[in-house]
Amino acid sequence: MQISSEEIIFLIGLTSLIFLIAPLFLIIYIVSYNRKKKKHQEEKLLLQKTYENELLKTQVEVQEQTLKTIAYDLHDNIGQLLSITTITLSSINLDNKEKAAEKLAFIDDLTNRSIKEVKALSRMLHAEELVNRGLAAAIEFELEWLKRSDKFKIHFEKENFGAFSSDSDKETIVFRLFQEIINNIIQHARATEIFITLEQIENAFKLIIRDNGAGFNVEETLKRKTGMGLHNITKRAAMIGGIASITSTIGSGSEIVVTISY
Amino acid sequence: MIFITINTGSELICFLAALIFLIKDKDPAWKLFIPYLLLTCITEFTGVYMNRIAHIYNYPLYNAFLLFECGINSYIFYNLYKPYKKTGKWLIVWYCAFIVMFIAELFSTHFTTFVSTTATIMSVVFVFASLYFYYLKLMDENFEPLMFSAPFWWISGVLFFYFGSTACNVFFDYLAKSAIIIHGHSIRYYIFNLLNVILYSFWSYAFLCRYLQRRSFSS
User: Fold this and answer.
1) Phi and psi torsions of B185, nearest 5°
2) Which chain A residue shows the shortest CA-CA distance from B195?
3) Which residues in B lie closer than 8 A to residue A41 (C-beta atoms)?
4) Superfamily of domain A134-262
5) Taking the alpha carbons of A231, A232, A235, A237 in that order, is the dihedral positive or negative?
6) Would strands A204-211 and A153-159 be described as parallel, antiparallel, or unpaired?
7) Could you tell me where the DSSP H helices lie in chain A?
8) A213-251, pLDDT tens digit by residue?
């Protein structure tokens, strides 16, 4: 069967039309992909903003925690020392020189202890700077403070722990996670011992905090409004690409493992 | 009025758009469109004169124009790739290969016809060059509003024109010899009218985008 010239020309026309439709669809595809790219970029920006807001909140919380500790210390420790100093000073009888000398020596001791406490507080005010010097140093410092209360027996281990991250923002968030977990133990756990382990495993960093307190039902607590603190811990860990796993048995304490890959 | 056809009309409008929107453009590659489109208009008017008034073959004119068409379009492609990739070496290699093909075809046809094989190969290369630009755009992480992107619309015009003309180029010999005429013109004439309108509309819009972009930067 021979194809006529008209048919060939019709075919050429049709082919040209098809060849025009193809770029049209290609352009539509490119434009719609580009729109998706825009949406993705906006989402990325929003995520970045949320991260920055959360980081700012974390930094404020670290500062608040420092100020709270300072307030407690001023009231319970330095305040007490100075009160005793005032009382001792007012009770000095200059006629009884022997007793007066004894009391003066006691006042001297009290004053020296007060100076030491004030110096320690001043170091506490630079807690943020401490985080910049390293996560382990900041945790150690916080634990030292906790040890002074004599309420808890603290066990702290650093296994193969060098530098965790060059990103100080990440370290601030981990430090805040540590503070939140410790706060929860102090407020709710009724524990006597706290075990803290910092370790570096392959491409990841682990912070393990265990206590021998009352324990709690993890699932139920997470469902209740009181579980906001735990939600906060898991949310913040996820924000820096980590996981916070919480396990607890009623009567035998709880354990929180924060794993962050880098 | 014999000189004003759909082809020459669309080219003239595009030349005026280039003159208005690109005269103050600082990029020499974009400014090059003004002399290039002027040359296109002159070629087209001369082609019409040779064909309709002097009644002589105009293919030597279009053969010569093909050298400019290939050179300038390739240079523009090279410039548009610049933010993503350095393709200077490829530009030189391609243009040398094109010249060799062009001369070889001229000699093989004894200078008696249009160098359709070279033009077809050039069209295919420009289609691939356009697709490669799209690929670079897809891979680029940065977002750019494509609706107002001058390079995107310039390249889209090129893709429409050269991809759409493939069928005509492939059947060039057949269409040249074919006596089939619709309302006094061959099918090739109608297809190229449509392609030219698309090409020059896209280019005019690209020049407008370029102008708006320049103004938004300067203000």
Assistant:
1) -130, 155
2) A20
3) 143
4) Histidine kinase-like ATPase, C-terminal domain (3.30.565.10)
5) negative
6) unpaired
7) 5-73, 79-90, 97-125, 127-133, 135-148, 168-184, 218-223, 228-239
8) 999 888 888 887 666 788 888 888 888 888 999 999 888
